[in-house]
Write a structure and sequence with these properties.
With about 240 residues, the protein is α/β, with parallel strands linked by helices. It is about 30% helix and about 20% strand. Strands 1-8-7-6-5-4-3-2 form an 8-stranded parallel beta sheet. Helix 5 runs parallel beside helix 6 and helix 6 packs parallel to helix 8. The longest helix is centred in the C-terminal third of the chain and has 13 residues.
Length: about 240
């Protein structure tokens, strides 16, 4: 991967929000999900579950039955990333299965207010996601309605892609908006996150970090999670 150059952003004048590490189950060994989740249980904050429908993105992953099967095995917050054409259609089912948070793509729901309301009715935390080519202005009107704003730093659909540093300006812009409006909205970065890129994203203003291969692809996922947290905490 080409060398990434650290950037400075006005975010640096704001407070540092609580850091949250969200290992992505998409990079885990599917034949051993129980033990894979157990490896990161004591070190991670959230568990990121990528739900793909083969329509909104060109891949199919897993869905409600996997969420339900894992729920009794983990105390982590379940962050269900709905890469689906109709993310609002199964919100109640995801809640019943054990989801705590659902994030939906603004590209799938250009007016997300009905979907956000439905998620709230189901007692779910809710977030909106922007793809690399989508401007943050598309979700700006809804930031006060959501818990998490997610910036994709790869094209959604497949794990193991390289981080796209051009999205860091979007992270910084979101952080500036959130802080200036005194919102508590988390800013999540998803895609190509490693100890190196997480530090860059933290410097730009992210505080939730989705990492798949960097954690589940490591020999010791718990140690990899610790290393990632250290890189974020020491990002200056």
């Amino acid at each position: 991967m080409e060398q990434l150059i650290p950037i400075r952003h006005p975010y640096n004048r704001f407070r540092m929000p609580e850091i949250k590490i969200a290992p992505s189950l998409l990079a885990a060994e599917f034949a051993s999900l129980r033990s894979e989740v157990a490896k990161i249980e004591g070190e991670a904050d959230w568990l990121h579950l990528d739900v793909m429908d083969g329509h909104f993105v060109p891949n199919i992953s897993f869905g409600i039955p996997v969420v339900a099967a894992l729920r009794p095995l983990s105390s982590l917050k379940f962050d269900c990333h709905l890469m689906t054409t109709n993310p609002h259609a199964y919100l109640e089912e995801f809640k019943e299965a054990g989801a705590d948070l659902v994030t939906m793509h603004i590209e799938a729901v250009p007016d997300p207010r009905p979907a956000i309301a439905r998620a709230r009715e189901a007692d779910l935390d809710v977030g909106l996601v922007v793809n690399p080519g989508t401007p943050v202005e598309s979700i700006e009107p809804f930031l006060e309605l959501i818990d998490v704003a997610v910036v994709m730093s790869v094209e959604p659909g497949f794990g193991g892609q390289s981080f796209r540093p051009e999205v860091l300006s979007k992270v910084g812009r979101l952080r500036e908006i959130v802080e200036n409006a005194a919102l508590s909205t988390d800013i999540e970065i998803d895609g190509g996150i490693s100890a190196e890129t997480a530090g860059l994203a933290a410097r730009a203003g992210a505080n939730v970090f989705v990492a798949g291969t960097a954690i589940f692809g490591a020999g010791d996922p718990a140690a990899a999670t610790k290393e990632l947290r250290r890189a974020i905490e020491n990002h200056d």
